[in-house]
Amino acid sequence: MSGERVNILKDRAEFFLGLAEELYERGRLDLAFFHVEQACQLRIKATILRFVGEIPRVHSVRELLGMVAKKLEELNCSRESDMVVGFVRECREVLMDIEDAYVESRYGVV
C-alpha cells in the first residue's frame, strides 16, 4: 500500500506542476505559485513516505527537505543528505518565495 500511496503523491505533484505551467502561461502568477508549492510539497512528501512509511503533517517545503536530509543521515547516506542541505542553502530565497507566494495566494496576505 505504501508504494501505491507514494505513486499517488508523485502523480498529484506532477499534475499540480502541469496546472502551474498552464496558469503561468495565462498570467495567473498567484495561482501558478500556489500550485508550484503544492507540487513541491507533495513530491517531497512522497519521498518521506517512501523512506519513513508515513506522511508528515508539515507544510513548509524547507522543513520537509530538512526531514529528508535527516532521514538520509540516519540511513548513513551522508553524501545525499549533504546534497539536500546544500540545495536548501543554495535555494533558500527561492524556497522562501515559493512558501510566501503559497500563503499569499491562499490567504491573501504574507
Your description of this structure?
With 110 residues, the protein is mainly α. The chain has one domain: Four Helix Bundle (Hemerythrin (Met), subunit A), CATH 1.20.120. 83% of the residues lie in helices and 0% in strands. The protein is built from five helices and no strands. Helix 1 (2-25) runs antiparallel to helix 2 (29-52), helix 2 (29-52) crosses helix 5 and helix 3 runs antiparallel to helix 4. The longest helix has 24 residues, at 2-25. The protein is globular and about 45 Å long. 26% of the residues are buried. The model has no long low-confidence stretch (mean pLDDT 93).
How do the helices and strands line up, and which of them pair or pack?
Layout: H1 2-25, H2 29-52, H3 61-74, H4 78-90, H5 92-107
Helix pairs in contact: 1-2, 2-3, 2-5, 3-4
